[in-house]
Amino acid sequence: GRSGPRRHTVSRAGRRGSGACSPGVVLMAVPRPPDLSKTPWNTMRIFAEASHKEEAEAARFITALVAKTAGPKGADEFLREEPVALKGIKSRPDLNGAIGKIGKGVGSG
User: Fold this and answer.
1) Which pTM does this prediction carry?
2) Exposure string over 59-83, b if 16+ CB within 10 A, otherwise e
3) Which of 9, 33, 38, 97 is spaced 20 to 30 Å from 25 by Cα?
């Protein structure tokens, strides 16, 4: 694009009304005032706000991911001979606190 103010040539034939302008008059467009939202301070603040939002969203994502994947291990995630302690058993409270080792699973040849 062009830089600087725009120039418009107005001829008598192209203008409505009394035709007070003489042919070939050059009109200069008035330059706009500077856009104050693009000052270095505002640019820095916009960048800082966007960075803060990005970090907050990343933290929310990680929290949701951990909440979804964390929790007690499934039986297939234990290693053979790994020591375990039983806890939270409501139907057999006498087994709570019992220590044992993971053995060969049922159906695993």
Assistant:
1) 0.35
2) eeeeeeeeeeeeeeeeeeeeeeeee
3) 33
